[in-house]
Amino acid sequence: MGNQGRPDNDKKLGVLIGGSGLIGGGILNYFKTRSEDEFELLAPNSKRLSLRDPKDIRLYLKRYTPDFIINTAITAIDSNPLLTFETNYLGTLNLARAAVDLGIPYIHFSSAAVMPTGKNLGEEEQLRLTPELANYPKSKLLAELALQEMHRTLGLDYTNIRLAVVYGAHDHKIQGFQRMLFALADQTMPFLFTNQQAMHSYTNAKKVPFFVHHVLNHREEFGGQTFHFVDPNPVSLGQLILTIKSYLELKRPREIFLPYPLAKFGAGCMDALTRLLRRIGIESKMPPELMFLQNFYQTQSLSATKLSHSSFVDPNPRATVFTELPMLIQYYLTRWEDLNLIVPYDKVFFDPGKRAEIFVNDPEQMLTSLGDDVAHPFLDTCMWPRGSDVDSETEDK
Ligand SMILES: NC(=O)c1ccc[n+]([C@@H]2O[C@H](COP(=O)([O-])OP(=O)(O)OC[C@H]3O[C@@H](n4cnc5c(N)ncnc54)[C@H](OP(=O)(O)O)[C@@H]3O)[C@@H](O)[C@H]2O)c1
Fold first, then answer.
1. Where are the domains of the chain?
2. CB atoms near residue 374 (< 10 Å)
3. How far is the CA of 17 from the centre of ligand 1 (A)?
4. Residue 92: pLDDT above 60?
5. Superfamily of structural domain 12-164+201-232+300-319
């Protein structure tokens, strides 16, 4: 097998699929900035290597003969059955087949969408594969089942990392948690589309690359297995929405928990309206997350016990979706304002450090802290120090 694409050094060479996405982007950034002496990561975009085209996969992997493959790619969750099947399932299958041929580890990303509802669910829990499943969970479940089988029969060395609701910066497609934040910031959520009981697990996107790094270096412990990569404690959706509302000092949503039948009826009406608008030539689309409406009303918490009993050490155990909220709100509101996606906010309302308020009303106060601000060398301050806590700042990419 040719390997003319390999760099001429001792570093381990990896191929990452999905490097422009929320999870893949974080992994790419981490491997470029924190483990550059140990690894080199290639991240072809979907034009260079499309998971829908087996020839692309074959040519690329034969050319570079990597030491491992990471797959974070998915198609949009509301894609049609063929696109979903080809990208999420067949793409996975072909990458895993290539990993078997090359005798290298394959790191796969999956989702809580393949699991039933319930509390403290273990890694062994999976939905039953039925025709009724929506395209996204069906394709992710099929991929998980195929990987399990390939491990058993072909000795595939893989790790399946299951994520829950992911929170983190740089989600440029505005999906999942970020979509909810957007609906709040855009003031399009009149009531609480959940109940008082519903709890869910959350995944901190910033921590994922640390786990991938660890998993790659500990194949014996992590090979052939699924791990939930979630924060230890589930979060109440109602409490999270109300916390964001209070940060943003919003009037909406009103503190009324809308019963599920009413929410479902409302979603049905919206769906009919968007179809009608499309028919008369006005572009409109339902948020794809509404396919998970029922989940907003049901608890689904993933057990983090297996992860906590593993050799992986959480780089920042205190970080939760609540501690990250100020950073996420600041990052996304600024971005969405800049892109004219939302009406500009008065920054004073969501600047937790009140820096904008001081800047506007008392600029001289900025200079009083100048001595402290410049007391430490700038270039030697690392935002993500090796082996220590992940800080809560937004890193640049
Ligand atoms: N985000 C969440 O809340 C969440 C929750 C649970 C699980 N997960 C799992 O985490 C993983 C990463 O999700 P994400 O949120 O990072 O996804 P994302 O932001 O939507 O990114 C998807 C990536 O897949 C790439 N891609 C799409 N079609 C492709 C194709 N045909 N060939 C090659 N690449 C293709 C995209 O590249 P282009 O932009 O170039 O098309 C993009 O880089 C997925 O396995 C997902 O199931 C995510």
1. 12-164+201-232+300-319
2. 9
3. 9
4. yes
5. NAD(P)-binding Rossmann-like Domain (3.40.50.720)
